[in-house]
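FW: tagging you since you asked about this chain on Friday. Here's the raw sequence from the shared folder, copied in full. Didn't touch anything.
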Amino acid sequence: MYLDVHAHFADEGYDIPEERKKIAAAGVKRVILAGDTVPHSAFHCETARICPEIYFTAGVHPSETAGFDEGTLRAIEEMGKEEKCVAIGEIGLDYHYPDTDKAAQRRAFSAQLELAHKLRLPVQIHSRDCAEDMLAMLTEYRELLKDGFLLHCYSHSEEMMDSFAALGGYFSFGGVVTFRNAKKAVACAAHCPPDRILTETDSPYLSPFRGEKNTPANIPVILERLAQIRGEREETLQERIWNNAFALFGKLR
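HL: got it, structure written out here
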């Protein structure tokens, strides 16, 4: 009954048959592969077609928006119509680097929000060093968010979480909550509304085990830590997270 709502396999060197064996052995029953470019979304689409436990999202990451145009949007739309495409994503804003073209990011973000609304799909959102602008955009476009949204690898404050939750947001937590210095992530994991919390790995990044490549097979380790943080039984939290994922991602089966 474990699941990973956000991982990346495309161009990351995974032996997918072997990885699937590890994932199954860990008891992880569903994996959502997140698109960050059109080619990566297409790879995940093909993977989902042949792997029953794998689903995917289609979209362009904010740091990959150079050249984003109508052709890009059409390609995402076609993938969004696939049976196993559960969301548009990962999309959003990322102001981490000083040379960021914020206007281009906002244009691509708003266009993909409109597409998700057209397709009646939720969105998976990447939000880094941009909390105020993200909240402003989601508030402005709240009518496009009626099918739900996920702030993956949530990194903003507890107070901002309340504002995002009021707009209907879900929040996923990964290996960061196992890090010794991750006080903000731990506080937010404890604060997260019980009907909005989800588990992810962001594989191959942010492994709970220093120096190792992350894998969806690490979800049980992440859930164990979340249960400790929240003072809950693992089985109770595991069931709740499963139900939350199916509530947000209507095409999951």
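FW: The longest helix spans residues 102-119.
HL: agreed, and The beta strands are 2-7, 28-33, 54-58, 85-94, 123-128, 149-151, 169-173, 197-199.
FW: great, closing this out.
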